[in-house]
Write a structure and sequence with these properties.
This protein is 39% helix and 23% strand. By secondary structure, it is of the alpha/beta class. Bound molecules: nicotinamide-adenine-dinucleotide (NAD). The site of nicotinamide-adenine-dinucleotide has 27 residues, from helix 8.
Length: 497
Amino acid sequence: MQTVGHWINGQAAPPRQDARLGDVYNPATGKVVRRVELATADQVREAITVAAQTFPTWRETSLSKRTGIVFRFRELLNERKDELAAIITEEHGKVLSDALGEVSRGQEVVEFACGIPHLLKGGFTENASTGVDVHSVRQPLGVSAIIAPFNFPAMVPMWFFPVAIAAGNTVVLKPSEKDPSAANWMAELWREAGLPDGVFNVVHGDKEAVDTLLTDPQVASVSFVGSTPIAKYVYEQATAAGKRVQALGGAKNHMLVLPDADLDLAADAAVSAGYGAAGERCMAISAVVAVDSVADELVAKIAERAKGLRVGDGTRETDMGPLITGEHRDRVAGYVDAGEQAGAEVVLDGRDVEPDADGSGFFLNPTLLDQVKPDMTVYTDEIFGPVLSVVRVEGYEEGLALINANPYGNGTAIFTNDGGAARKFQNEVEVGMIGVNVPIPVPMSYYSFGGWKNSLFGDTHAHGMEGVHFFTRGKVVTTRWLDPSHAGLQLGFPTNA
Ligand code: NAD
């Protein structure tokens, strides 16, 4: 059986006989399709050292050469995205069209990074003081560690590495050990695009690899995406080690439906955003907050649509694939059990499933729970599965208060035809990414992606100008070329004159 190994210094690292190995499943069949090497601290340090040694020459490589390579990467990715999508579907399970969508959203960040010369431009002020000019520059940081979750094995790394590399940093990527192959595929694509060896490295592994990245003194920055407890841990460890950190965590996204909303649009959105990728998206809708009279009709419309979804192997004519592991599938089903016991009404029961797939994959059907109360675990916890909970509230204010009381603040959406209500909501809601009649408001690459509260630790969001700032640091240079008018010693604090 094939083993996915590390990618260090522009080539696949030779396999180690004594390596710890993890199983990689095809979640649609439940079978192990390959194994992945789990790096020791020494192997991770080797990758970091290569990246650190490559940094001085890469940062000195001209902007036109750097962007030329990023541009070639974009062209190759665009030509061969089907290959990457097939890898994602095999190891993650999401349906092929969804995997292609993931690649396209990642590609948008690559396109954004092609504009890095413009984005890195500093300012220049002539004659700030008499005969004195001031200008600013932004310079790369060094080795950027990127630690990714299983649910977007291509897009999430691409939120970061195109900008990091274009800005002149070198990278060590640690993908999820559950779906590791997409990272190696992208590493080979970089080589084909002409990226010098050592700029982009991949190590596979678990806590041991992550801990090494968080503490090694040669790592300058850490970009992490994953569950909230690990994001918090990463943030604390890496900032204590003096690194710049952005750690994006979990989510519990609400969709507020006002009585004047178009309920067909809202039901379409709830189904697409609740069950797409089997609910394993950080921007998935998990709680539908039905205001006043809309609940009965909305629940009926969601149920009617969700019943028609085809569940099965993502390489077939299906709408929704499996969950990532059998353990996770059982955990999600456990939340449905707990919700039912606590008094939620099971409108659609996804525990009863006959998928269009061979073998015994990790499937659940779309599940719809009504009459969910805010103290039920199905509401309080991030479930990360195809489970939509309907919480009924009286009035906009109660809905808003519910959303703002939630410890997560990643994404939210309001469905209404009242522009004033939508404007009030976007002003008052304590969430980082907001949709108005749009259920998964993932910002375009030239804006920045990130949540509030327990959905992000650190100040800087991913990609867009915040991403450029994260991967660079500023310098301001004050210049005077001596001329006959220089004024001799001046021990007072410099002021403009
Ligand atoms: P996870 O936290 O289990 O794993 C994320 C990464 O951390 C992986 O690379 C994993 O190997 C590593 N890791 C796991 N346990 C660790 C430990 N004890 N110490 C150090 N490192 C560890 O997350 P996941 O299950 O892969 O991904 C799903 C989670 O990611 C969900 O909570 C989801 O909301 C979140 N997510 C958030 C965003 C966002 O933008 N906020 C985007 C995608 C996913």
